[in-house]
Fold each of these.
Amino acid sequence: MCEEEKVSLEDHASNIAKILSLKSLPEMMYGNEARNFVKKHFPKGYKESSSGAFLFDELPEIYRESGVVCVYDCSVGTLAHELCHAKQYEDNNKWLKMNLFNKRYRKCLYAFYPVEKEALEFAIKYLKDVNHHDYGNYKSEYCKTRIFWIVSSVTKTVVLFLFFYFLFVLFKNFF
Ligand SMILES: [Zn+2]
């Protein structure tokens, strides 16, 4: 996986790093190598359906300086997205510091969580600027992702509400 496109992905990676003014290019991994790396170092954060990941504080010391960009699906959009996270990490972006509140926020509203929103929008802009054939796809996936997260957070809220309502009715009848 990725072997044919690897050269072009590496060209894009250095181009993107220049645009982001990254001080150093992080360790890059593609395809199955990337999947296996995440499974090994951050099994909790691995999702089969994801297209990539950026790892940082869950890694051994040698990788921690600039983090590791993992691109599972070998796409330029994912590459741009994850490199944007590398830049956020380099800048010591406070949103990457995952306290409990941020974790919940990210879980409930992924596409609206500031670091994700920035990375998704950066990737769309990059694909557009280089006139990449994935541009249309990536953009429509982004729109679908936003709709999905709105619907799922509304559903979760309704379910939670019904659950407490059920408890309330139960207790009222009990006493
Ligand atoms: Zn992301």
Amino acid sequence: MTTLFKTLIFILLSLALTACSQTNALNKLSLTAEYKTIVHDNVMKAAHQKHIADNGGQDGHYSINNRLKNLTKKIIKANGLTDKNIEVILLKSTSVNAYSLSSKSHLAYVYVTRGLVEFIANDDQLAAVLAHEIAHIALGHHLKRQASSGNQFNQSQELEADQHSIKLLKKSNFKLAETIKLLERLDIFQAEQKFLNQADYPTNKKRIENLSDVIAGI
Ligand SMILES: [Zn+2]
């Protein structure tokens, strides 16, 4: 199993709408990191179980799970994303995080922590987080990272995921302005948490500018 896990590349990134940190210590401090794992098909399940274990286990809260499933279904259906079976998992962790896991297999996972759901102001903001993760999956970013020597998404991939998420949200009839509002709230939250932004991750200001341009042109 150790060898199996050695083949995994664990990537700590900031979630839709946050900055990112690379170490576990920072992750615990920041509450806003995004954790992405790139795997080969044969270790997909092992990585999935590890994600769940590392985040306090799966949270069975009935109405939150239903809310997440319905929002994900709405985005997938409106955009015809049927080539992947994207399953959304609620994690017990109180940190404010979202993650995604994808491989060449049919299955992909989006993980959302309980802390994130409690931070989010409304369904449009929760949909924005889900759409950002779904965008990484739809754009094949996990596989691109797997193919390269790097171990996390780069700035351009994050900005690309943001841009693509706006298209997904627009087709699903979500309020696009809520994505900006969420970024602005996260920026204040991260400043309060003394969150350390990573050099290769776009700042919230840059993400807001990027998204505002996309929304203006849509
Ligand atoms: Zn991302």
